[in-house]
Amino acid sequence: MGFWENFKYHHNKWFVVNGNEFGFSRWMIDHNVPTGGLWDYFNLLSSTKRNRSNENREKVLAKDHLVNPTMELWDVLIDQGFPFIKNLILNEKVACGNRDHLCNIISRLAKNNPRELKTLL
Predict the structure, then answer these.
(1) Average pLDDT over the chain, rounded to whole?
(2) For residues 117 and 83, what is the distance between their CA atoms, to the nearest angstrom?
(3) Share of the chain above pLDDT 70, in %
(4) How far apart are CA 102 and CA 105, in angstroms?
(5) So what's the pLDDT on residue 23?
(6) According to DSSP H, which parts of 11-84 are helical?
(7) Which residues contact 69 (CB under 8 A, 6 or more apart)?
């Protein structure tokens, strides 16, 4: 049976991500469909500016542990043209402590291209 025949709509975020997002990836891999990210994780790490680093980000940059780049490397993604910022980073503590940089990004985008800012948030 195909992925879409088994798709289950749900309001629980964990279920949506694990069952649907990861489930779709698992289904594609099981069916030999090539998968990959548009933004390579290790390229993101190598392009991260060290002046934005703290102890947690240094661990990420040293490749001591993997993180969700849309949460912990959001600023690097935005600098590379990623199309949005997750609302979650506005409401929750970011382990890499780079949220103070958020004000600079928002200010820059508001000044240079207000429409781009609107689509990011």
Answers:
(1) 75
(2) 10
(3) 74
(4) 5
(5) 80
(6) 13-15, 22-30, 41-46, 55-61, 69-72, 74-79
(7) 39, 41, 44, 76, 77
Give me 19's structure tokens. 């069952």
Q: Look up residue 59 and give its amino acid.
A: K
Q: What is the mean pLDDT of residues 10-39?
A: 83
Q: Which of 1-5, 29-33, 84-88 has the lowest mean pLDDT?
A: 1-5
Instruction: List Cα–Cα distances, 24 to 20, 30, 90, 116, in angstroms.
Output: 6, 10, 28, 29
> How deeply is 29 buried, as exposed, middle or buried, from its count of CB atoms within 10 A (0-12, 13-18, 19+)?
exposed
Q: How far apart are CA 29 and CA 35, in angstroms?
A: 7
- For tokens 């698992």, the residue is 26
Q: Does the predicted TM-score (pTM) go above 0.70? A: no
Nearest CA-CA partner of 93 in 54, 42, 35: 54
Measured distance CA(84)–CA(94) in Å, rounded: 16
CA atoms within 13 A on the CB side of 91: 4
